[in-house]
UniProtKB/TrEMBL annotation:
SUPFAM superfamilies to which the protein is assigned, alphabetical: Acyl-CoA N-acyltransferases (Nat) (SSF55729)
The organism's place on the tree of life at top rank: Bacteria
Pfam families: Acetyltransf_1
Name under which the protein is recorded: GCN5 family acetyltransferase
High-level lineage: Bacteria, Bacillati, Bacillota, Bacilli, Bacillales
Organism: Cohnella kolymensis
CDD domains: NAT_SF
Residue span(s) of domain N-acetyltransferase: 8-153
Length: 154
């Protein structure tokens, strides 16, 4: 297991360079590891740092995790494309990333967070306060997912 460095930080992406780094992480995790077609992975929300709220976690300035959120409905942020490099999974990086994204959503006036979790990650999100809403899992990019929600005000 990779040991986390003291210099780990979660940043809101505001530059094209950091966005490229984030997209590289997603390509490694979703396309190379999980077999998601590249045309399904990238969309209009990846065109620029301002297309939605992109985040990246750096470990001593090395990009290791990314995610994004966008408004889903009034007061609700939809967390998406949460990806952690394989060697950093299980070290708390995902928690750091999601907490940074939730804090930002809260500051932007969101009272709830919504996400479609891969079924293999459902327990991870449950430990962070998310509740499963789906009656049955559903396919997204040929991977089983469940819809989950969290109150950001409590």
């Amino acid at each position: 297991m990779k040991v986390m460095a003291a210099e780990m930080k979660c940043l809101h992406i505001t530059t094209d360079d950091l966005l490229r780094e984030a997209l590289n992480i997603r390509m490694k995790v979703f396309v190379e590891e999980q077999g998601v077609p590249p045309d399904l992975e990238l969309d209009e929300y990846d065109e620029s740092p301002t297309s939605c709220r992109h985040f990246i976690v750096l470990d001593d300035n090395r990009p290791i995790a990314t995610g994004r959120w966008k408004p889903y409905e009034p007061g609700v942020a939809k967390m998406q494309r949460i990806a952690v490099l394989k060697s950093y999974r299980g070290t708390g990086v995902g928690r750091l990333l999601l907490q940074g994204m939730e804090d930002d959503a809260r500051q932007c006036g969101c009272a709830e967070s919504l996400l479609d979790a891969q079924c293999t990650a459902e327990d991870f999100y449950r430990k962070l306060g998310y509740v499963t809403e789906s009656i049955e899992p559903f396919l997204d990019a040929d991977i089983l997912h469940v819809r989950m929600r969290k109150n950001l005000r409590s």
